[in-house]
Amino acid sequence: MSTPLKSSFLLSYLCTLPPALLSREILMADSEALPSLAGDPVAVEALLRAVFGVVVDEAIQKGTSVSQKVCEWKEPEELKQLLDLELRSQGESQEQILERCRAVIRYSVKTGHPRFFNQLFSGLDPHALAGRIITESLNTSQYTYEIAPVFVLMEEEVLRKLRALVGWSSGDGIFCPGGSISNMYAVNLARYQRYPDCKQRGLRTLPPLALFTSKECHYSIQKGAAFLGLGTDSVRVVKADERGKMVPEDLERQIGMAEAEGAVPFLVSATSGTTVLGAFDPLEAIADVCQRHGLWLHVDAAWGGSVLLSQTHRHLLDGIQRADSVAWNPHKLLAAGLQCSALLLQDTSNLLKRCHGSQASYLFQQDKFYDVALDTGDKVVQCGRRVDCLKLWLMWKAQGDQGLERRIDQAFVLARYLVEEMKKREGFELVMEPEFVNVCFWFVPLTLRGKQESPDYHERLSK
Ligand SMILES: Cc1ncc(COP(=O)(O)O)c(C=O)c1O
């Protein structure tokens, strides 16, 4: 064993090492704990046990109890006072810190509460939460095998499983910080595949490009076009039918129009489970169009991807196996917890790494003592990357495919139940019969009932 090193010395010593040795030294060096923890280990343990107790009591037990509020709502000025947000030069006692933890939980929204209906995620899966707690406690980064050996292998396996559900026996992928970013990766990859020069030479090498998505798509497609320098004008908005599904004939028409205007079509982003209506675009027909025109097909299945787990409902995504890329957020319908979003690729040519890699020599040394293909960090535009696979993996281990399938099927059953109950009650107007778990409806107040014909009906109803 090497002699214990003071952490400050360890740091300056490491700075003198050649990069290839650095990684080995980090693994081997025996260092004392950081001073703040070394001060009083008993107090540290007591604090953390107390905090975990507060979390279990306040955030989990009370936070998921129907007898408690979803949120103790306060207006911003009052909340600022209650939280006493100012950061001061003097530190506070353990008791005060515990009280602060309680206040944070008290005034926060409990998204695991059975009556939390505000977003596309809710509920609390205990195994996923256990995974999140372990992830936070280990606080590692997903970029190299040496710093995340377990999670590099785990991510690979979880991605393989998700790809298999899409229908691919090989491919690539990565967990991204959310579905918006997964969508943006897809756009960047499609562009790079067609114009590899643009990585080095930038936008000046490109003709005007066009990408296509329906009017019901998620707004991240527009954001991505702006962020990637394509400009929002390059997004051609394809018609959706009355159920919110992209109209393939209009896609074909829009491609022709873009070409006539001198733009080069390169990508179609279809949506499986649109954000508002829960519509599934007709993937087979869209894939046919893409094939005819040689376009990259991306499927934004951030919301609806988890339906692939259900034998009963997976037909909604028929044709997804023909996509080049898929974005899938297990943090939404599967309740894996924020954040958990996979970008899946059919590609086996290392496109992700070729497109985003920059071979930083201090991190991705090529002479490591293991297969450096396990250093997945150069596939992404980030450096440090959160571990997002453990919560999903642990939940999947506990539930099995069958448990997760039951969960999806149950969500459909509950949506149907809600629809049937609405039909029995006065004052509820369904926007349409849902095919997914989005139930869109109007609540018609007493003063507006029976007044559908009046000219300001819709405006007043909206208000
Ligand atoms: C269809 C769809 N795609 C993408 C996203 C964006 O996902 P994220 O919030 O993880 O960025 C959403 C979010 O609601 C969505 O509904």
TrEMBL record:
Keyword Signal among record annotations: yes
Origin superkingdom: Eukaryota
Matching Gene3D superfamilies: 3.90.1150.170, Type I PLP-dependent aspartate aminotransferase-like (Major domain) (3.40.640.10)
Keywords, comma-separated and alphabetical: Decarboxylase, Lyase, Pyridoxal phosphate, Signal
Cofactor: pyridoxal 5'-phosphate
Record Pfam families: Pyridoxal_deC
Signal peptide bounds: 1-23
Matching InterPro entries: PyrdxlP-dep_de-COase, PyrdxlP-dep_Trfase, PyrdxlP-dep_Trfase_major
Residues carrying N6-(pyridoxal phosphate)lysine: K332
Any single GO BP term: taurine biosynthetic process
An MF annotation (GO) of this entry: pyridoxal phosphate binding
Any one GO CC term of the record: cytoplasm
SUPFAM superfamilies: PLP-dependent transferases (SSF53383)
Family membership: Belongs to the group II decarboxylase family.
Complex and partners: Homodimer.
Protein name listed in UniProt: Cysteine sulfinic acid decarboxylase
